Amino acid sequence: MKLDLFLKKLISILFPVLFFLVPLFFLPLNYELFEFNKIILVYFLTILIAAAWAGRMIIQKKFIFRHTPLEIPIAVFFLSQVISTIFSLDPHTSLFGYYSRFNGGFLSLTGYLLLYFAFVSNLEKGDVYRLIKSVFASGLIISIYGILEHFGHSFSCLIFSGKFDTGCWVQDVQTRVFATLGQPNWLAAYLAILIPIAIYFFITAKTKISRAYYLLLTTGYFACLLFTGSRSGFLGLVIALIIYWLLTFFTNRQRIKSYITLFIILNSLFLILVIIFGSPFSQINKFIYYQSFLAPKALNTREPQHPSGQGTQLEVGGTESGKIRQIVWKGAINVFRHYPFFGSGVETFAYSYYNFRPVEHNLVSEWDFLYNKAHNEYLNYLATTGTVGLGTYLFFIGFFITKNVIQFKNQKLKVKNEIQNSKVNKNMVPSDNFDFCLLPFALFSGWLSILVSNFFGFSVVIVSLWFYLIPALIFVLNNSQSFPAPSKPLKNPTVPLIFLLLVTFYLLLSVVNLWRADFFYSQGLKLTKQNEYSLAYQETSKAVNLSPQEPVFLSELSSNTATLALVSSLQKNATAAAELTKGAVAFSDRAIKESPKNINLWKTRIKVFYTLSTFDHNYAIKAIEATQEAIKLSPTDPKLVYNLGLLYGKVGKTEQAFSTIEKAIELKPNYEEARNALALFYEDLGQNDKAIEQLKIILQGKPNDPEIMARIEKLKK
User: Fold this and answer.
1) Between the CA atoms of 446, 447, 448 and 449, what dihedral angle is there, to the nearest 10 degrees?
2) Using an 8 Å Cβ cutoff, are 115 and 49 in contact?
3) In this structure, what is the dihedral angle of CA atoms 558, 560, 565, 568, given to the nearest 10 degrees?
4) Which of 61, 145, 270, 287 has the lowest CB atom count within 10 Å?
């Protein structure tokens, strides 16, 4: 039994560690600094928690499982994801998640649900409070991190470059902070969850010091959220706070006076922060942001900007984000119409969207950006998991909301009965009982903020963790009845425990190797940028050896190998060039076989064949064939059509080159590169008038461009 108590204690420690470390954890060693490392940590700790839970079952010789009302909604939702994964356009991506996003695949969902059931089956009310205290500690570090970023000092830069400034980031981190979360909207969504919970501890604090601490904590979280400039996070918080205060006041109206002062103090501080620093909404700022009274133009500084390298405008905001969002949402609906029941497959939006990408996407500034999410969690589920997937997801949400509404009504009735039975004034109602019920209110309100922020974005690791674990925390706090399922006792626990240890070690090693593979892949990419092709090949080969089924690694290795083949050809080493050529094609074939609908892999394949065609003209035809296949997957992509035209020109098919480039221009009338190529074709043919016509159209988008004007004058002579 000592071992059982140890394992139970271990689980109660690992959960706070999980919630403390995940939002903080990131490393500069990987392809994706933030989300990848967070999901790796989740997998690692989930394996340890699940192993400890399984160990307890073996020791106790019974199935340890606490039933909760959410079992049926979870089961049907999980089943929908299983079916969607089986019939996916890309089962590999559906299983592991889209490479660079990682969160949202079937594997991550399984992990979150394991954590849910492990929590409700092993932990008690006291564990919930300890977990929340660890969350506050983590949130405090992150909010200080973000606030300092706003004022030009990033701990990340101090660690990476030794300079306590923000110069290590390409992004304008002072305008929109992201701390250790990696993106402003993700940080805002995280803080919107924490703030209602922190408010609970503020209004129920028993000492002045404790109350002052939670007041500072809450306002710190709020200030950091303002500095993210996130509209979705701010809106999610507003909705969460409205719900929380309504639940608090109307569940026990007799206690309103005891909380109204605290309500005024807290919201006055929030208002002061908005007056000083502004909100993410210019509509609000023009009424209360102090700079709007001093200099109306200053309002523009509060508009979310588009820092380069941080993601699409839908992620970071921007003047065009609303227009782009409408186009992407339209594409998501088009995907759903084609895959109405089970969608295109879990996490396959990056592939299915481009098959139905609206042509108007070519006219926005981010026409050539990759969109691997619908930037609306509900439309994303609709497109990738169909009616069944979205329906079961909404069923899960609706069921949980309904259960909480019932719980709140019961709590209100309980408070009313206590008042009547006590036959004393309202101040003599046991305050601890009511104060305790406010924590589920706070957790539920924070959970509702996720539903709001996800309408304009999507869940990342820490948000998903809260989405699936808040219901677990609430059910443990409410002490829902549990009935352990009967099971046959195990005769000899030693052998199963040894087997469990071996399985756990294997799974942990697999997670470590997953991280190592990404590390080698990242190193390979860096070396490629430095033109160290041989070293890049070696590092990428290590990644492939560790994860031989990962198509992203295989595709990059094919590109490395093709470059080395070109180098060997230039060095007149025909034997090595031939071997490397064969290897490049083989790696590309393996990548395409593993993920045939991945448009990025086809683009790399085109690049590989084009590289090989520089010393073996037969591969020019293969490059054309690969481009044609890519266009089938993304028919409205003008860049693919344009490149096909260039390839036709390379093999001497001038007429097809003309017509194909003209088609690219039809898809994107303001396509400067395509019109310039067309002008060059006309110039080579001596049709100067037509060349001038194309250049004049380019000049409309680039008025007074000296280079274009000089070319026009030259052609006129």
Assistant:
1) 60
2) yes
3) -160
4) 287
Q: In whole angstroms, how far apart are CA 31 and each of 188, 539, 604, 678?
A: 23, 13, 17, 37
Running DSSP on this structure, what letter comes out for residue 308?
T
Three-state SS for 70-96 is: CHHHHHHHHHHHHHHHHCCCCHHHHHH
Going from the C-alpha of 429 to that of each of 197, 328, 523, the distances in angstroms are 23, 54, 64
- Residues, the chain, total? 717
**What is the rounded distance in angstroms from the CA atom of residue 116 to the CA atom of residue 121?**
9
CA 654 to chain CA centroid, Å, is 44
DSSP 489: P
Number of other residues whose CB lies within 10 A of the CB of residue 363: 14
**Which residues are CB-neighbours of 164 under 8 A, at least 6 positions away?**
153, 154, 155, 157, 158
Rounded CA separation 78/55 (Å) = 25
Q: How many helices (H) and strands (E) does the chain have?
A: 30, 0
Q: How far apart are CA 515 and CA 519, in angstroms?
A: 6
d(CA 533, CA 570): 14
Mind listing the domains of the chain with CATH numbers? 73-477 (no CATH), 515-716 (1.25.40.10)
Is the C-alpha dihedral spanning 181, 184, 190, 191 positive or negative? positive
d(CA 504, CA 519): 23
Per 3-state DSSP, what percentage of the chain is helix, strand, and coil (rounded to 5)? Answer: 75, 0, 25
Report which of 205, 206, 200, 238 is spatially closest to residue 222, judged by C-alpha positions.
238
CA distance 535 to 521: 12
| Cα 715 from chain centroid (whole Å) | 51
Tokens of 464: 């998903």
Q: Token match 């109307």: residue?
A: 250
Quick check: 588 and 555 in contact, CB under 8 A? yes
Distance between CA atoms of residues 99 and 555, nearest Å = 13
Kindly calculate the radius of gyration of the chain based on its CA atoms and give it in whole angstroms: 29
DSSP 127-166: HHHHHHHHHHHHHHHHHHHHHHHHTT--HHHHHHTS-SSS
| Cβ-based neighbour number of residue 222 at 10 Å | 25
